[in-house]
Design a protein that fits this description.
The protein is mostly helical. Helix content is 56%, strand content 4%. The protein is built from 39 helices and eleven strands. The strands form five sheets. It has a three-stranded antiparallel β-sheet with strand order 9-11-10. The chain has a two-stranded parallel sheet with strand order 1-6. Strands 2-5 form a two-stranded antiparallel ribbon. A hairpin with a 2-residue loop joins strand 7 and strand 8. Helix 16 packs parallel to helix 19, helix 17 packs parallel to helix 21 and helix 31 runs parallel beside helix 36. The longest helix is centred in the middle third of the chain and has 25 residues. The protein is elongated and about 145 Å long.
Length: 1013
């Protein structure tokens, strides 16, 4: 756009584009001023308008409206983040609020005629010192106004006022002056071209940046080929839009005042002023940059790259979910903000950190904002190269994460947990690298140590210290004594005067909390407030809480469970750090937590049952090869010896433990036994027993339980509930190990104690009693919450079907044979009361439906076992869920079915032996799938154990039969049988006479179905 004007001189007819690239110092200064008005000045203008409105309401005695306006002023202070006690308020606020306060003290509510206004005035007089924010600063201003010496105190004029106020006292005054030398009236009526004055409350300073212009402005600029002097003549405003309404009327009035002549308002400006005006960016047309001409080769390369980028983007969109896309965008934004981050001053870091600490524990705080501010502080501390300050802010952020997560029943989310874990890991790494410089303790103050790098900042700190001392003087005068309350204070070298009052200096850093308590901290270290051990424990608890809230065996649960590997890495860093510090007891605590995560992990190399199965296979293979070698005439066949795993030995409370496998959990248990507390030693022993039972080491688990004496009530009965749950879990897993190895009696004895309480899931930490919502007391709700908190994550649970099957099958092999051999003995010794109870309940059922669960399958198997029906029992046993949950099911099945065969044979001989005189051993072996040798061996054992008094059979080796001993009935038995037969005949006759046929028909009743005659 070129500048041409017919009414101006020839010197003004020059192309305005020549000023477009002119780097003028004056324009640079003006542009800098515009940028400074963007944030703080806008806040001050809006805040000044609120204070002005409140004072106007007070001056008109509208006390109700004044109270409402005062509330808006307080809300603005909070929203502008001026609520900190150390923040100095503007002079206009302090001055005018002090005037309002003094006038309110002089007013008498009785003089007010309106009752509502009278009541509002009473409330103001009573609570004015609480209603006005930063009331202490009003007192400071009244005593010493020099703190606000160079500040503006004028409130300005509102939109409805007629007179303009002085621009020197305005925060949003005009940036540029346009002087009219012709007439004052014209300049008053016409709007100034570059004026951005603050005639109203809500006006903002103009923005002259070309990048902020509205869309479509380029099209308007292309059509502006005429001069801007002729534009004003045609009735256009400064943006090129036509003026309407009041502007046209102003032009008509101006023409009439000048006698109808049209006046060029630019003629009142000098040449130098016009030259400056031509340089303004919103009047200068943007110069179009010439496009670079690309060669054909470059065009092809760019087109090919675009196709590749689009293909990669499509592939990424097909794989990633919308959540992943949003996460990547947020990560990119955070990275961009980090790269653009500018270095803050120490004062700004102090104010933001103090404000964050003041908001902790409040429910109405925007938690995301607090987190973002703390993360910004961490970056700023890194820019200042202040490692201690960075670690302190990180510790505060971790504490904030745990405080917010403690209110949730589902614990931390996955992303929040990983962020917290990353922060703790960074803490551990940094502290491990700088063991000689930094230490962490809960006794330390929340203190940031930052270096002063600028003398200007040092001077500002001195002024702030004077300001803080003035506020402290007001506090002491108000209370009459020295304040020991926790409040934000600058930290440095403390100096005491003759009276003992503490003053502050600006040397060093600053402290947010000063507490009058004794601390035993080594001064040669820089101390960080926090407790790493507590952080790691809370991190573990939050992971378990989150896992408990998820659906087990789901994709989300499996994905979240992988965080256990990250947790183990954190334990590794922590153990290394405490090892450097030389704190073995704390390191033992970490090792115990580590064992709690890995104690249920399975390792094939440690599985004793697998080694036993492999040995049996090798023995069979060796025998086969030996037979083949004997047939071939080669008698030299040596068995290959397998290398044994190295063993470890340790001591537990003075008793030696030998033949422990060399693995991770054993080495950790050994360290805890040597350095841990009594509680940690007990916990480590229970974890070790559980892990050995998982790997089917029956003999080792038995020895550990016996030598530790944990089963006595004086040991485990006096510990906390968590240890008792660990003890029950170790016993339950040991019982499953006993069952897998074929030790039925020990499995039954252990599990019957757990099942007799009818709360086995609660005892194992796998369930809790839910309190009824309608009738629950506070004690019941609390108990339910405690039980829920003690629960373990689902991947630690012992499968209930495995436990129940191990208990009932073991009891079946012992109790059913006990019942069949002593069926007529009234003084029968009951070995398992729980099994007998369940057995009799099942037998008393009126209708026995096909079995559906583990208990019904096993009890139905027991009924068939009493009848000696081995094939039916075998089919029932094969349908149990047990075989899908245990390791090496074929080996365990082999042991179970081997015992089942023999017990079915025992029951068959006792029940149906009186019917036979002799039974063929070959027939018995065929019925119960046994070899003849095993059948003879088992029957011989039965005859020997029965004794001479109750010898029921004998073996005939010649005929290969079992000869059953028929015992003739005694006279008393014969008489009892006759009496029973006569009694049955008498009952039958009476039923026929009464027409009752229920004993012989399923429907009862005679002819016609209702007791016919």
């Amino acid at each position: 756009m070129s500048y041409e004007s017919d009414d101006s001189d020839g010197s003004d007819r020059e192309n305005i584009n020549e000023y477009q690239d002119d780097d003028s110092d004056e324009w640079g200064e003006e542009e800098e001023k515009v940028k400074l008005l963007s944030k703080k000045q806008k806040q001050l203008i809006a805040f000044k308008a609120l204070v002005r409105e409140a004072k106007e309401k007070f001056n008109t005695n509208a006390f109700m409206e004044f109270a409402a306006e005062l509330k808006k002023v307080n809300d603005a202070i909070i929203s502008n983040k001026w609520a900190s006690d150390s923040h100095k308020m503007p002079k206009f606020y302090v001055k005018h609020m002090l005037e309002i306060y003094n006038k309110i003290q002089e007013l008498d509510p009785k003089d007010e005629e309106n009752k509502k206004e009278q009541q509002a005035l009473r409330k103001l007089k009573k609570n004015i010192d609480k209603d006005i924010k930063h009331f202490k600063q009003l007192q400071v201003y009244q005593q010493n106004a020099n703190f606000w010496k160079d500040e503006d105190s004028d409130l300005g004029v509102g939109e409805n006022d007629d007179n303009d106020y002085d621009s020197d006292d305005s925060d949003g005054g005009a940036l540029y002056e346009l002087q009219d030398t012709n007439t004052t009236k014209d300049t008053e009526d016409k709007p100034d071209v570059g004026d951005g004055g603050d005639g109203g409350d809500n006006e903002e300073p103009p923005d002259f940046d070309d990048s902020d212009e509205e869309e479509g402005s380029d099209e308007e600029e292309e059509s502006e080929d005429t001069s801007w002097s002729t534009m004003s003549e045609r009735g256009f405003d400064e943006d090129g839009d036509e003026e309407k309404g009041s502007d046209e009327e102003d032009d008509d009035e101006t023409k009439e005042d000048q006698g109808g002549e049209k006046i060029d308002w630019l003629a009142g400006f000098e040449v130098e002023q016009l030259a400056k005006m031509r340089k303004r960016s919103f009047w200068v047309k943007k110069s179009k940059k010439k496009k670079k001409v690309l060669s054909e080769k470059e065009k092809k390369r760019i087109a090919k790259q675009k196709l590749l980028d689009q293909a990669a983007k499509d592939e990424e969109d097909s794989v990633t979910t919308p959540k992943d896309k949003d996460a990547k965008k947020q990560k990119a934004k955070r990275e961009a903000r980090r790269l653009k981050r500018s270095k803050w001053s120490v004062n700004k870091i102090r104010d933001i950190f103090t404000d964050v600490l003041a908001s902790r524990g409040k429910s109405a705080v925007n938690r995301d904002q607090v987190v973002s501010r703390l993360e910004e502080l961490i970056e700023q501390c890194a820019l200042h190269e202040a490692e201690q300050a960075k670690l302190t802010v990180t510790s505060v952020l971790v504490s904030f994460f745990f405080d917010t997560a403690s209110r949730k029943t589902s614990g931390m989310s996955g992303s929040r947990w990983r962020r917290t874990r990353a922060l703790i890991t960074n803490l551990l790494k940094t502290l491990s690298k700088n063991v000689d410089s930094y230490r962490m303790s809960n006794d330390a103050d929340i203190r940031l140590i930052l270096k002063e790098e600028d003398e200007k900042e040092q001077g500002n700190d001195d002024a702030n210290l004077e300001w803080m001392n003035a506020l402290q003087t007001i506090d002491e005068n108000a209370s009459g004594m020295k304040s020991n309350s926790i409040r934000p204070k600058p930290f440095g070298d403390k100096t005491e005067d003759d009276t003992g009052d503490k003053q502050f200096s600006s040397k060093g850093g600053f402290s947010v909390i000063q507490m009058n308590k004794k601390k035993k901290l080594d001064p040669k270290y820089q101390w960080i407030h926090g407790n790493l051990l507590s952080f790691i424990k809370k991190l573990t608890i939050q992971l378990w809480t989150n896992l408990k809230s998820l659906e087990p065996r789901s994709e989300v649960y499996d994905k979240r469970r992988k965080n256990c590997d990250l947790l183990v890495k954190t334990y590794k860093y922590a153990a290394h750090y405490y090892n450097k510090l030389g704190l073995p007891e704390t390191e033992a605590e970490i090792q115990t937590l580590w064992m709690g995560v890995i104690h249920s992990d399975y390792n094939e190399k440690l599985d004793q049952m697998k080694h036993r199965i492999e040995e049996e296979k090798e023995n069979k293979e060796h025998k086969r090869r030996k037979r083949e070698a004997a047939l071939n005439g080669d008698s030299k066949q040596k068995k290959q010896k397998k290398k044994k795993l190295p063993n470890l030995s340790t001591e537990f409370r003075g008793q030696k433990i030998l033949n422990l496998p060399n693995c991770a959990i054993v080495s950790k248990a050994k360290f805890v036994f040597e350095n841990g507390s009594t509680r940690n030693q007990t916990q480590a022993m229970l974890y070790l027993i559980y892990n050995m039972a998982v790997h089917s080491k029956y003999e080792l688990c038995r020895d550990l339980l016996l030598m530790s004496h944990l089963g006595s009530s004086s040991r485990i009965g006096q510990t906390n509930v968590e240890l008792q749950i660990s003890y029950n879990r170790a016993l339950a897993q040991y019982a499953i190990c006993s069952f897998s190895n074929g030790y039925w009696y020990s499995a039954m004895i252990i599990l019957q104690e757990l099942y007799s309480s009818n709360r086995i899931k609660i005892l194992l930490g796998q369930d809790y009693i839910k309190a009824p919502l309608d009738s629950a007391t506070q004690e019941q709700i609390k108990q339910s919450q405690l039980q829920q908190a003690r629960m373990l994550p689902p991947h630690f649970h012992i499968h209930h079907d495995v436990l129940e099957a191990a208990h009932l099958i073991s009891s079946l092999f012992i109790e059913v044979t006990n019942m069949i051999t002593n069926s007529y003995n009234k003084n029968l010794f009951i070995r398992n009361a729980y099994f007998r109870k369940v057995w009799h309940q099942y037998l008393r059922r009126d209708l026995r439906v096909p079995p559906e669960n583990t208990k019904d399958f096993i009890l139905t198997t027991g009924i068939n076992m009493q009848n000696g029906e081995f094939q039916t029992c075998k089919a029932m046993m094969n349908r149990l869920k047990l075989w899908n949950e245990v390791k090496h099911p074929r080996y365990i099945k082999k042991k179970v079915f081997s015992t089942l065969k023999r017990e079915c044979l025992r029951c068959y001989l006792y029940r149906y032996g009186c019917v036979y005189q002799t039974i063929s051993i070959e027939r018995l072996a065929q019925m119960f799938e046994l070899t003849q040798g095993h059948t003879i061996q088992f029957i011989s054992k039965l005859i020997i154990t029965a004794g001479n008094d109750s010898k029921f059979a004998s073996l005939d080796e010649i005929t290969n039969c079992v000869v059953m001993h028929q015992i003739p009935p005694m006279p008393v038995q014969r008489t009892a049988l006759e009496y029973s037969d006569k009694l049955s005949f008498l009952i039958e006759q009476n039923e026929k006479l009464l027409g009752i046929y229920s004993r012989y028909s399923g429907f009862g009743g005679g002819k016609g179905g209702k007791g016919g005659k």
